[in-house]
Model the fold of this input.
Amino acid sequence: MIRLACVPRCYFAWVFHLIALPVLVDAMGSSVAAGPPNVVMILADDLGYGDLSSYGATDLRSPHIDKIVASGIRFDNFYANCPVCSPTRASLLTGRYPELVGVPGVIRTHAENSWGYLDPAAVMLPTLLKQAGYHTAIVGKWHLGLESPSRPNERGFDHFYGYLGDMMDDYYNHRRHGINYMRREEREVDPEGHATDLFTSWACEYIADRSKKESPFFLYLPYNAPHTPIQPPQDWFEKVKAREPGISDRRAKLVALIEHMDDGIGKVMAKLEETGVAKNTLVIFTSDNGGQLSAGANNGPLRDGKQSMYEGGLKVPFCAVWPGKISNGTHSDRTALTMDLYPTICEAAGITVKHRVDGSSILPTLLGKSQATENRDLFFHRREGGERYGGLTINAIRREDWKLIQNSPFAPLELYNLHTDPLEENELSKKNRGKFIELSAALRVQIQRGGAVPWQRSSRRDVE
Done:
């Protein structure tokens, strides 16, 4: 793999990119330029670790995501950067811990309950890809800011067709608190249909259009599903109820919403094949955090779920496929985080990241190459309001097998050994004071780093 410095988007840079990259041999034996790969980054919203059939669900069928697993690689120890939406998305698109780019919590439509403001100086993944000749698009849920300069087209995306806000109050009318946040570029649109179907259709249209172009593309496809409200199309709900005897309505609705999303992902994968671009496209699938237990989610045997620093809130499914590059049906137990996808995608695209990121590329692991285990501390951070959090933070640190968490700002720190206790049942802070003191000191340093970064627009103005 030849790594190229990020260069201005121009004809000569593109020609150099083509010449410098490897040459493949097609089925007829002729030499063809491989070119940099297209990248499709699919992100589910609140998908639990156990809510795919390939991850152990017995009442759910996810054949299309399962096919990505079977045709590529599955990670068993992949973590979201945060147990809620916005911070994880910020990490994906910046390669940084979310609190270090101003997104320690959920960015919401009401300022008094919004806990982040994406740093205008953060170097965004689509910006780097554009400079290397890529056309960049987001189809789906943005959730990183409603106003300038925090909208997708201002943060490196050539094309935006989707939803600016956080959750939708209804999958069919696409409003939040009565406001329509559906946009095509900067223009408000009001399409008819279930949001999952719309995002799938728009993604397929984008792939079909870009397949006719010379330059590679980056498509970021963040679905709203299966976030609340749990609102699958009625026929999908009825199909699950008929197939799964004894399933509760609550669980059946969530299963149907996930299966409906899986069907959409299948259509996207089929469009890649139909247009002939699948063979040089890296597809990555994961979730922004664990499943919401009150909505009927299944996080496997893991403790707790969405919003929690226990494993059920952070550990998520992950799989990737790249024909001819990633071997079929491979598994990895390597520990990785959402922020690792930023340098991974850059390396796959031939881009050398010259600024500081917190993530580490996992491309060698995806390609089946040996990759040394990193002895790095992993931090998790969330700020939230309401009486439960009071505008304060919850935090965790993982160092090798040890994990120290504070799951409520009003509760003591807890220590677990994930090797001997993966379900976090045996709290060890009193039995191993040395490890407790060691990890709590490291966690405080990270909290100080995050505390130095403004996370509200007004506070940024105050310090300027």
Q: What stands out?
A: Residues 378-463 form a domain with the Arylsulfatase, C-terminal domain fold (CATH 3.30.1120.10). The two ends are 42 Å apart (CA to CA). Residues 1-33, 460-464 have pLDDT under 50 and may be disordered.
